[in-house]
């Protein structure tokens, strides 16, 4: 089992002919992802050649729009490798086409642009009132179900499949945690991104992992700034029955200074690593002081 992405997902790449799109399409194919084509309006009708994970050459069609790609291939996932200037239009196009999952890798998208396509996704709903498109990102490593599929830039060779669910604001800490716990393995790992406005949240992922029968424990990585971790702690206390361990990056960050991710700014006591740690521990989450200690806390759960 997994959440949001599996071996049957049909993936297209927006920006498949660009430098980043080309590089990561090759790596996603190597990871086993079922990539069925790409989108670039200026190169519609052409093909790009890549090596399939089984070693043979495969030609992927390039379509003029997401809607055309979905119509011709049955695609249900799009990964956007589009420069910040064009990312909003690419996301809006995918949402209006009704793609089921949109993973926006791009860093540096203006917050107003993200807010626009986030709001469109939230208000474009099915007959039951549920959003048609789930957005992951932006400014994130994407999502991986090890051994099945990768939609994003997470290295696929650092871990194995297993019973841990991982949700993280930080890309590099995602990779470290996956490597530290590679002997146990992961059901799905999601990098949600650290921008002030993001699509999928800690709480969304926690809910999905709680409902996934093959996820037995959850690792949640947060960082200073905002109150997302405090809200996640409240959700865990009320709704999550599986063991959760956590790590909060930024214990040494000075107050009032923006650190790395656009969302990582601390004002007074609000958004500090210590405040987040206290909120999580009050919800029964074991919080490590370092990523390695956090991994060891998770390991102890499985030993127990």
Number of helices: 9
Structural class: alpha/beta
State the shape: globular
Q: Over the alpha carbons, how many angstroms does the gyration radius reach?
A: 19 Å
How helical, in percent, are the residues?
A: 25-40%
**Would you tell me the overall average pLDDT?**
94
Spans where pLDDT lies below 50 across 5 or more residues:
none
Instruction: Kindly state the number of beta strands.
Output: 14
Describe the main β-sheet briefly: 7 strands, mixed
Neighbour order of strands in the largest sheet:
3-4-2-1-5-6-7
Strand coverage percent: 15-25%
- Compressed to H and E, one letter per element, the order equals EHEEEHEHEHEEEEHEHEHEHEH
Distance between the termini: 23 Å
Question: Would you give an account of this structure?
Answer:
- With 304 residues, the protein is an alpha/beta fold.
- The chain is built from 9 helices and 14 strands.
- Strands 3-4-2-1-5-6-7 form a 7-stranded mixed β-sheet, sandwiched between helices. The protein has a 7-stranded mixed β-sheet with strand order 9-8-11-10-12-13-14, sandwiched between helices.
- The chain is globular and about 55 Å long.
- The mean pLDDT is 94.
Descriptive keywords:
alpha/beta, globular, 9 helices, about 300 residues, seven-stranded mixed sheet, about 25% strand
